[in-house]
Amino acid sequence: MTTKISTLEELKALEGQEVGVSEWMTITQEQVNLFAEATGDHQWIHVDEERAKASQFGGTIAHGFLTLSLIPVFGSQIFDLDMGQAKLNYGCEKVRFTNPVLVGSKIRARATFDSVKEIDKGVQVVTTYTVEIEGVERPALVAQQITLVIG
What we know:
Distance between the termini: 26 Å
Pfam families: MaoC_dehydratas
Structural class: alpha+beta
Organism: Marihabitans asiaticum
Strand content: 35-45%
Number of strands: 8
Number of helices: 6
CATH architecture: Roll
CATH topology: Thiol Ester Dehydrase, Chain A
Family: Belongs to the enoyl-CoA hydratase/isomerase family.
CATH class: Alpha Beta
CATH superfamily: Hotdog Thioesterase
Mean pLDDT: 97
Domain MaoC-like: 15-131
Helix content: 25-40%
Protein name: Acyl dehydratase
Low-confidence stretches: none
Shape: elongated
Order of helices and strands: EHEEHHHHHEEEEE
């Protein structure tokens, strides 16, 4: 269920709290191949299914940056910042790829609002996303994203 946030007061009330969890998403070889085409990263561990079967992973793995690039999808399933004139991705504080995502795995994200800070042009929100792999204890990714809510 998506949490709708319409006011600064609602946003500040969620500071320091987990906002929610996204739906599970299955990572497919097609997604990985399309990401390889888009980025030019054709490393064999991502795209050569036969060679990857003999690797320590037993199959192809998603690019770490593919997993990171799914944060907007996961975030939209978790919360809706229905405030301000625009929401801009300002960057990331920390990004850690802590576990490979095997093709065919299901992943989802948890989001926590670490900080909500008023700035000259609006509000700066730092959100930690933890991307989990179904059935695996250690997450695939932990990233702190900074969003600017303008106006």
